[in-house]
């Protein structure tokens, strides 16, 4: 388990963060 430091919440589990996808692909505002 990796803890990622958050300046507001303190150490957060890596499971709360996820891959957002590719930057050049347009995604719908409301899927």
Topology:
Layout: E1 3-6, E2 10-13
Antiparallel strand pairs: 1-2
Short description:
The chain is mainly β and 31 residues long. The chain has strands at residues 3-6, 10-13. A two-stranded antiparallel ribbon has the order 1-2.
What key phrases describe this protein's structure?
single chain; 31 residues; mainly beta; two-stranded antiparallel ribbon; elongated
Spatially, the strands of the biggest sheet line up as 1-2
Structural class label: mainly beta
Specify the biggest β-sheet: 2 strands, antiparallel
Unreliable parts: none
How do the SSEs run, as a string of H and E? EE
Figure out the total of helices. Answer: 0
The whole-angstrom Rg is: 13 Å
Q: How many E-type strands?
A: 2
Question: Helical residue percent?
Answer: under 10%
Distance between the termini: 31 Å
Q: Could you tell me the strand content as a percent range?
A: 25-35%
Mean pLDDT: 79
Gross morphology is: elongated
What does this structure look like?
This protein is mainly beta. The protein is built from no helices and 2 strands. It has strands at 3-6, 10-13. It has a two-stranded antiparallel sheet with strand order 1-2. This is Sarcosine oxidase subunit delta.
